[in-house]
């Protein structure tokens, strides 16, 4: 039988299975960040003047903002001038249908298990595939359009639905929100746009699959989801990247607007390249995700399964502005080797009778360092606001770290805020008990971990819950302490 | 079925088992008694393969196979079952999911296909009734928040589900009230058959009134110092262990 050290070495040596690269001709802008490059991106994308103005405002804000210092890790120095801010697969001509997408790209997504051919696609899931900075294909667009659902790349939305984009862009995450969001506002390349009209329940899961391929580029996509009155949508995001020795920056922004009675579920299965066992390479996943429950009785729910990235740093948040609106955050964050995660959520209770629920499950293995950081704030107008937070940490081995930083700010006496936290370790006696019933150590760990994260995985749509469960087993294969 | 020859084992350098010899044929029940610290539970742990014990000498054969060379999970799959003295709690893992995994792991090892959900539920129901196990406990997390008695009954229920050829009951009676003791013993008695052997480790003669052994062994200071029939248990109940200890010390000093 392996002892814990051998087993920990074993996970450390586990290969990342999506680490291949695609050889394809690219349009890449020269490295460097300045007004010219922003104008170049905007022109490349044939954007209206107002959007260029907005980008430039983002750039001005970026220049004034400083890197945060409050995080629970040493922020590595990132030379933003060394990055290229635009990379796109070279298009020979305008695409009219999926058949015209470069076969090399289709093959790449096929290899990742995301077939873009509608006949082969998962039934009930429409996919927008983003390769480096550009959306290469969106499936089931026609079918969705019949119901008035808009699901397309951000770039396309700017061309086709400029009024909707202009009305909501930057209303949840302002261009000056934080340095990474400001950077994104200035140089964002593409991303997804979703609009669900009044009274429509989106008939399929909408999904965006992000793939970083090019070297020395950052990925700055932007997603905007608007759910009009009485509508519903469930949205999923998946991501992978090649194995590269240098770190790559991913600074995305996601904005969600839920109007009266609308409900948006946003799920992420994040599997960016985590770097090797010595912490070399990997993605810096510095993302700003925020939703606003603008209308009464609206609901926004974030579910995230974070297993990849060298550093995961994000706080998907909800502003509960509408009376009786509801926000949820379900998270599983796994770190191993030298991975770092500083993640959690912020819930702002502004309206009356608003409710929120936070379930965070951290798993730390190897030399990983996992922090939960969360803020629950209750404004003076938020009569009878309610929050429940549960924050659990599971440790595997004795070299890893786990920290919890919960902040509570209440300005209303009627608020009820609950916080529960536990820290546990997979014990050798638990493993032995399962061994003694014929279950080997690998399976025993998987059983315990799956039991531990069940509450969060249950929030994911079926196929993705299965995917996520597999991903967790692979990530933690052989880890006992 | 089980042959233990001159078994020596230590934990953290401390010698615990000092030459155990024991032969357990098919279909028999052997009780192991002895004062605290005599090595009873250690023997159970060594047989099940707990890795903080180091076997320094001796052999253990189980159905013709070298038990000491097997991993704990393979021992279980071969048909060795340890009913734990202190069953652990595993939050988040439901009792039923755990059992299904265990049953199917054992089946896969034997080259059998995993049980279909329907067949599994049928088996569960049948065994639940056999050992009088509360249905409510099936969907709860494994042993989490179970009372001492419920945990022990869960062990016997697992024993029924996994149907091993050798069951080692490590102080299954400790912490049980008289009713729970009766239920647990009834369960064991119903599971008794000509193919199955039991090793019953206990402090008290009381359990042996319910589960009647074929042989009683007294373990003291890491060795079996006396073997008898069930009457030996009664004698121990009456006289305690001191007379045996004294005899043993005299033997040693000779």
Automatic annotation (TrEMBL), chain A:
Coiled coil: none annotated. One of its GO terms (biological process) is iron-sulfur cluster assembly. InterPro entries: Fe-S_cluster_assembly_SufBD, SUF_FeS_clus_asmbl_SufB, SUF_FeS_clus_asmbl_SufBD_core, SUF_FeS_clus_asmbl_SufBD_sf, SufBD_N. Residues 210-451 form the SUF system FeS cluster assembly SufBD core domain. Residues 132-202 form the SUF system FeS cluster assembly SufBD N-terminal domain. Belongs to the iron-sulfur cluster assembly SufBD family. NCBIfam families: PRK11814.1 (NF008773), sufB (TIGR01980). This is Iron-regulated ABC transporter membrane component SufB. It comes from Chitinophaga jiangningensis. The lineage of its organism: Bacteria, Pseudomonadati, Bacteroidota, Chitinophagia, Chitinophagales.
TrEMBL record, chain B:
The keyword ATP-binding applies. It comes from the Bacteria. Belongs to the ABC transporter superfamily. Ycf16 family. Keywords: ATP-binding, Nucleotide-binding. Residues 2-246 form the ABC transporter domain. SUPFAM superfamilies: P-loop containing nucleoside triphosphate hydrolases. GO terms for molecular function: ATP binding; ATP hydrolysis activity. InterPro entries: AAA+_ATPase (IPR003593), ABC_transporter-like_ATP-bd (IPR003439), FeS-cluster_ATPase_SufC (IPR010230), P-loop_NTPase (IPR027417). This is Iron-regulated ABC transporter ATPase subunit SufC.
